[in-house]
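[recover] target loaded
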């Protein structure tokens, strides 16, 4: 009775999923940073927090030229970042599949 080669566990079974093997270092680099979707989201939040309130603040000067009122600026300008953030959320979730 030799102990060489007999593990007692039976034959080794290898399961393949059809996907290419991923190196451990490649998997770690994918997790670093925000990625493209993250940076697009950061840009949209900056627009929503800084650009749109600035545009509403400056609207009386530009509204006279366009023939719009301050009330229309308060209704229309916040809708733009809301739509952009909604579209980015759908795009980023679709991109993660």
């Amino acid at each position: 009775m030799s102990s060489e080669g007999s593990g007692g566990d039976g034959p080794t079974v290898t399961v393949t999923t059809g996907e290419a093997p991923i190196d451990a270092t490649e998997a770690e680099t994918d997790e670093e940073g925000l990625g493209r979707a993250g940076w697009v989201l950061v840009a949209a939040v900056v627009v929503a927090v800084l650009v749109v309130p600035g545009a509403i603040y400056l609207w009386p000067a530009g509204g006279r030229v366009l023939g719009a009122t301050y009330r229309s600026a308060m209704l229309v300008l916040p809708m733009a970042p809301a739509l952009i953030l909604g579209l980015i959320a759908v795009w980023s979730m679709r991109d993660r599949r």
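[recover] notes: The chain has a mean pLDDT of 76.
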